[in-house]
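User: Quick sanity check before I run a bigger batch. Here is a single chain. Can you write out its predicted 3D structure?
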Amino acid sequence: MMRQYELVERVHRYNPNCDEALLNKAYVYAMRKHGTQKRASGDPYFSHPLEVAAILTDQRVDDATIAIALLHDTIEDTDATRAEIDQIFGEEIGRLVEGLTKLKRLDLVSKKTEQAENLRKLLLAVAADVRVLLVKLADRLHNMRTLQHMPEHKRGRIAEETMDIYAPLAGRMGMQDMRQELEHLAFKTLNPESYERIAGNLSDLRTKNQGLIADIEKELSEAFLARGIKAEVQGREKWPYSIFRKMLSKRVGFEQLSDIYGFRVLVDDIDSCYRCLGVVHTIWSSVMGRFKDYISTPKQNDYRSLHTTVVGPHRQRVELQIRTREMHEVAEFGIAAHSFYKDGHFDATGGRSFPRSPRKARPMPGCGGRSRRCRKAPIRKNSSRTPSSSCSRTRSSVSRPRAR
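Assistant: Done. Predicted structure follows.
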């Protein structure tokens, strides 16, 4: 379990001016309140809020959000009161901890509703401060990581709720890493047979194409360097869930998919993005109809990047995303990235603190208007359930096993 000083150090790495006294006080208070309580896994209950706080340090959130993460279950599960938290930590933190308690109770409603979209709207309405949603998403992510310790009859409901509500919500907030992991963990529970089959196929392909990702990274890096472009190349396999959705949308098997690999090219400025694109299209053939310029025309959640697909080594199709490091921060961390940086520098003055309303923070596209990109496609646990519709990832990052 992370120690007190280790948590403070994690925050200090990205915020040298963090309020260490607040973090230490919240750590000790939550640890004492949860006392001897245990998780379903048998671990001390305090390990959960601590892991939630750790997840949020990866998102580089502010001190208050870390404190709220540590305290988020105290009103619901201990003898702590709103008045006591107000007195010790201030009214703002007390209000936000109470807001999380309301969202926890809202989960009970979600078990009975069939309209996940209505619940998503309700979540946004109830959470008057975006920090409440950030902590709630991190709370759900840790619960999904430890889902195996829950009774089996609860796992399916929790996974469906995650896929229907929390993963799309993370996507709307621009937090793509969190969205992908939530989808991945839910997919493993909801459709274990498909997950295992795709994971096995990926393992076989990894053996067959051993070193391919490293070779492509090297070839691209050398091509950029030869033209005087400073760039970092990151290669990866696509997530099993992403592959599953592509198989559904194209109505093909794994063997017919040609773009299993994805690469990111990170540069320092916009001009370098387009220069890198030119280099890529010079050394490899581009695939017609697969170029998207989200720099000149950003997505509604503020995502910016160049997307292209090329035919790389061994006739292997490769998807590339080219963007600046600042764009990458927004792509990975969404709202959290915008909250702490001003003109590319850390803003310790609070001049860009979290807004009160997530709707004001940045536009969050939803499915309420039934855009043309909304789709339906089945995901089933033992072929027993069809999900509600949600928008495809191609526009608003709201995703479920839907056709793209």
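The first helix runs from residue 4 to 14.

User: Great, the batch can go ahead then.
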